[in-house]
């Protein structure tokens, strides 16, 4: 029975990895299909994280289900004249505010997980949870800085998942790290091109 469960979890993890990779690749290309693809991935990871007792990650992916729908809508209708959304950047004070939120919320959530659950790696798990939520929100708004947060999350996640013997998922996050760097560069170029293009009167 244990072997059957392990094989099933490996199959679910492998499927989630494929959809996760596709989601990030489509996001870099600013394809609207990143959202339904991401929806499949986050639902599968709800199952995985429950199984390995990474409760903050499980909660995160539950919220991701709602955020996938929100991002899908916002990319279609959140731009100029309710059209497609363009890449933009945060202003200095907003950037600092989001950074402080990630730091404080990670410490508080990590403390709650450490003192009230049997969560594995509560503070590291809390950081990836909080930073991912902020990154996902900024991604839905097509903010360039979302990629910087994803890079930080990917670095932390690689260590967490390797430690928990989720080797496929650790490999996925290593690929995510590379893709996040490409995403940052691609969106930076896209924003520069948007700024250089003549604006309609």
N-to-C span: 67 Å
Report the mean per-residue pLDDT as an integer.
89
Taking all Cα atoms into account, the compactness measure Rg is 17 Å
Question: Can you count the beta strands?
Answer: 0
How would you spell out the order of helices and strands?
HHHHHHH
Pick out the low-confidence regions.
none
Domain tally:
1
Quaternary organisation of the protein chains: single chain
**Biggest sheet details:** none
- How many helices? 7
Q: Please report which band the strand proportion falls in: under 5%, 5-15%, 15-25%, 25-35%, 35-45% or over 45%.
A: under 5%
Which class best fits the helix and strand makeup? mainly alpha
How much helix is in the residues? over 70%
Instruction: Name the overall outline.
Output: globular
Keywords:
single chain, 201 residues, mainly alpha, 7 helices, globular
Overview of this structure, please?
- The chain is 80% helix and 0% strand.
- It is mainly α and 201 residues long.
- It has one domain.
- The termini are far apart.
- The mean pLDDT is 89.
- Its main location: membrane.
- InterPro entries: NMN_transpt_PnuC.
- Keywords: Cell membrane, Membrane, Transmembrane, Transmembrane helix, Transport.
What's the quick description here?
With 201 residues, this protein is mainly α. It has one domain.
Write the layout of secondary structure elements.
Blueprint: H1 2-28, H2 34-51, H3 55-77, H4 92-116, H5 122-140, H6 146-163, H7 167-196
Helix pairs in contact: 1-2, 1-7, 2-3, 3-5, 4-5, 5-6, 6-7
């Amino acid at each position: 029975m244990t072997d059957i469960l392990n094989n099933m979890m490996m199959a679910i993890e492998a499927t989630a990895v494929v959809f996760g990779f596709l989601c990030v690749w489509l996001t870099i290309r600013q394809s609207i299909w990143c959202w339904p693809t991401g929806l499949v991935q986050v639902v599968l990871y709800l199952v995985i994280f429950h199984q390995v007792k990474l409760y903050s990650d499980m909660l995160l992916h539950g919220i991701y289900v709602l955020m996938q729908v929100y991002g899908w809508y916002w990319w279609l209708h959140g731009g100029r004249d309710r059209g497609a959304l363009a890449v933009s950047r945060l202003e200095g004070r907003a950037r600092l505010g989001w950074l402080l939120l990630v730091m404080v919320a990670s410490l508080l959530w990590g403390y709650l997980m450490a003192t009230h659950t049997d969560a594995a790696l509560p503070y590291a798990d809390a950081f990836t949870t909080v930073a991912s939520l902020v990154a996902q929100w900024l991604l839905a708004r097509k903010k360039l800085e979302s990629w910087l947060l994803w890079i930080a999350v990917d670095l932390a996640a690689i260590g967490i998942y390797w430690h928990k013997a989720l080797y496929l998922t650790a490999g996925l996050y290593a690929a995510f790290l590379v893709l996040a760097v490409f995403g940052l560069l691609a969106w930076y170029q896209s924003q520069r091109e948007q700024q250089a293009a003549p604006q309609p009167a």
